[in-house]
Write a structure and sequence with these properties.
The structure is a single chain. By secondary structure, the protein is α/β, with parallel strands linked by helices. Helices cover about 35% and strands about 30% of the residues. The strands form 4 sheets. The protein has a 5-stranded parallel beta sheet, with helices on both faces. A 5-stranded antiparallel beta sheet has the order 10-9-8-12-11. A hairpin with a 6-residue loop joins β14 and β15. The chain is elongated. The chain starts with a strand and ends with a helix. The relative contact order is 0.11. InterPro entries: CheY-like_superfamily, LytR-like, LytTR_DNA-bd_dom, Sig_transdc_resp-reg_receiver. It comes from Halanaerobacter jeridensis.
């Protein structure tokens, strides 16, 4: 049997590297490319026409489920193994709908079992679009019930406020503390930026080690020196935030710059 031509899609380089290493130990697959965001992944997959895609769910710009839905429009869509650190409810949704996935952090045995399922269930590929729709509906219903699109923050009076994601313009670190900035206020957040990357929706993007921005609240992108960028945010101060060189390509792909 020919090797499965495979692409990894994950916005976290350490996670890609870990999976890359595990796949080198599995004879059935051949890794041909990687992508670090959903928009770049769609273009790469359409160009390379792989047999199999390992697809992270939480990514900036376009998440894994949205990418998977787009891929079902291809004449010969690839098999998909989702990569997830989702909560138990989401995992139940995957199990009920027979969606192939592996949990982070990865274990070699689970990766191998997922690949075996791909080989066994290949004839059922045409059912994936229906399964994806069912999963997205279940996750959407659960999100509405739990109101997960709110972030607990601390007011200057010490109260806990539930701040809607849509009101957050950016999040940053200052003096070893983390703050969420709205149009005219700033609130302290208990989570660190790495935790918030996992918690927030795909509308947010970590442009710098000290900043996470709401993509919808970027008013301007300014070319800077040595190929870097700054983004101008829609707060009262029109805050300029630096974009790390490693994040420039993803930002360009998100906004088609």
């Amino acid at each position: 049997m020919a090797k499965l031509q495979t692409i990894i899609v994950d916005d976290e380089a350490p996670a890609r590297n870990e999976l890359d290493y595990l796949l080198t130990e599995i004879d059935e697959v051949e890794l041909i490319a990687e992508a670090d965001n959903g928009i770049a992944a769609l273009q790469l997959i359409k160009e390379e026409q792989p047999d199999l895609v390992f697809l992270d769910i939480e990514m900036p710009g376009k998440n894994g489920l949205e990418v998977a839905e787009e891929l079902q429009k291809m004449k010969q869509p690839p098999q998909i193994i989702f990569l997830t650190a989702y909560d138990q409810y989401a995992l139940d949704a995957f199990k009920v709908n027979a969606i192939n996935y592996i949990l982070k952090p990865y274990e070699e045995a689970e990766v191998y079992e997922a690949i075996e399922r791909v080989q066994e269930l290949y004839p059922e590929q045409e059912l994936l679009e229906e399964k994806l729709t069912a999963v997205m509906n279940e996750l959407s219903d659960d999100n509405q019930q739990q109101e997960v699109d709110k972030l607990p923050v601390t007011t200057n009076r010490g109260r806990i406020k539930l701040l809607e994601y849509g009101k957050i313009i950016y999040i940053h670190t200052k003096a070893k503390k983390v703050y969420a900035v709205t149009k005219d206020k700033e609130y302290e957040v208990d989570n660190n930026l790495t935790e918030l990357e996992e918690k927030l929706s795909s509308d947010f993007f970590r442009v710098h080690r000290s900043y996470i921005v709401n993509l919808a609240k970027i008013e301007e992108v300014i070319p800077w020196f040595k190929g870097k960028y700054q983004v101008v945010m829609a707060d009262n101060n029109n805050q300029k935030i630096p974009v790390s060189r490693s994040k420039v390509k993803t930002l360009q792909q998100i906004f088609d710059l």
